[in-house]
Amino acid sequence: MITPEYARLFARYNCWQNKSLYDAASALSDDERKAKRGAFFGSIHATLNHLLWGDQIWMSRLAGTPKPTAASIPDSLAQFEDWDGLCCERVAFDQIISDWTKAMTPEMLSGDLTWYSGSTGRELTKPRWVCVVHLFNHQTHHRGQVHCLLTQLGCTPEATDIPFMPE
């Protein structure tokens, strides 16, 4: 099982990496961010929307935060059409994740979590700590896709290695 310290480390990593990607992506035009680039979710903007949506849906399950406004994965790609709105919501939600991990206890990682998965069309039950690991792994996975797209466009996000994270 993971510890609350693990979750706090990854919450800090999440904030650092999101700031890095959003800063780099802000140098692009809206059309460049929304251009289809062959990524799993198409564009940088759509991938960042999905990533925020994924955080929101998992936090609604894990911490009882409100569900995202988009109801499904396909809807998640356009949850925030406006870049500034997406940026503001990202910063605000990163703070929610951070605050949640700061208050986390070992008991919050124990037991099982049961939820209905729209992507699989069925109810699932997994250990809570596995779902917390998934929350952070999902972030890293999709941020890696965005990092690659930004690098291809000549933007320079920060390194992604945890040991290089500022204190």
UniProtKB/TrEMBL annotation:
Residues annotated to bind a divalent metal cation: H50, H138, H142
Name of the protein described by the UniProt record: DinB family protein
Family annotation (InterPro entries): DinB, DinB/YfiT-like
Pfam families per the UniProt record, alphabetical: DinB (PF05163)
Protein keywords: Metal-binding
GO molecular function: metal ion binding
Keyword check for RNA-binding: no
Sequence similarity: Belongs to the DinB family.
Record-annotated membrane-spanning stretches: none
Record's keyword annotation contains Protease: no
